[in-house]
């Protein structure tokens, strides 16, 4: 995964993501945005020195957007995932990638938005207060010995581990079904496959610790 600065060429993509019903339900402002208002907002956002708008990209293409606004307390961060990128456990990794630089990061989350809360907490954010119908979270990022490129490489390894784990969970369920049917030959074949996938996970964890 990687982050790149947004441009006006991303306007339509951001507009579609912003007006997605699930995105609006989780946003501070839930009403739909018109195309004209969105273009005005986009142009203003790209011209502001205190606002940093990024597009997150991965192997499957654009994953979402992250907005970082400099404020008196630090940097307020918000994230929008593309509909096709949801349910893949990517939000926490993107939030970690966006907060690698030393500084104080803040986020506002609707109390009922448990998915966002879990993602921000997994990325190191902690709840600090409830005000104006929103839950506020904070993360104090310290100086890291690793470069952003090194951290991004580690995050890719974590993604690889997650993908292998996901496949292996299916194998475990298949093993259970076969065992219940008392089919020894098929069970042994699944055990060998599970062992192979576990070895892949071990190798990825070893690289992560390098």
TrEMBL record:
Transmembrane annotation, as ranges: none
Residue intervals of the N-acetyltransferase domain: 1-154
UniProt-recorded name of the protein: N-acetyltransferase domain-containing protein
InterPro entries listed in its UniProt record: Acyl_CoA_acyltransferase (IPR016181), GNAT_dom (IPR000182)
Residues in coiled coil: none
GO MF, one example: acyltransferase activity, transferring groups other than amino-acyl groups
Domain of life: Bacteria
Organism (species): Octadecabacter antarcticus 307
């Amino acid at each position: 995964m990687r982050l790149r600065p947004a441009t006006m060429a991303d306007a339509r993509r951001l507009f579609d993501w912003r007006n997605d019903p699930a995105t609006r339900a989780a946003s501070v402002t839930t009403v739909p945005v018109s195309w004209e208002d969105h273009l005005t907002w986009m142009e203003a956002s790209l011209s502001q020195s205190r606002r940093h708008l990024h597009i997150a990209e991965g192997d499957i293409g654009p994953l979402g957007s992250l907005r970082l606004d400099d404020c008196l307390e630090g940097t307020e961060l918000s994230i929008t995932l593309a509909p096709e990128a949801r349910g893949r456990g990517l939000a926490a990794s993107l939030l970690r990638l966006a907060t690698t630089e030393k500084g104080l990061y803040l986020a506002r989350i609707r109390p009922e938005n448990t998915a966002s809360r879990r993602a921000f907490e997994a990325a190191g954010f902690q709840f600090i207060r409830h005000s104006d119908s929103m839950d506020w979270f904070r993360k104090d990022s310290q100086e890291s010995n690793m470069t952003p490129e090194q951290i991004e490489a580690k995050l890719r390894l974590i993604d690889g581990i997650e993908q292998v784990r996901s496949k292996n969970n299916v194998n475990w369920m298949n093993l259970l079904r076969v065992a219940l049917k008392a089919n020894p030959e098929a069970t042994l074949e699944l055990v060998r496959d599970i062992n192979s996938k576990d070895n892949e996970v071990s190798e990825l964890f070893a690289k992560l610790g390098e």
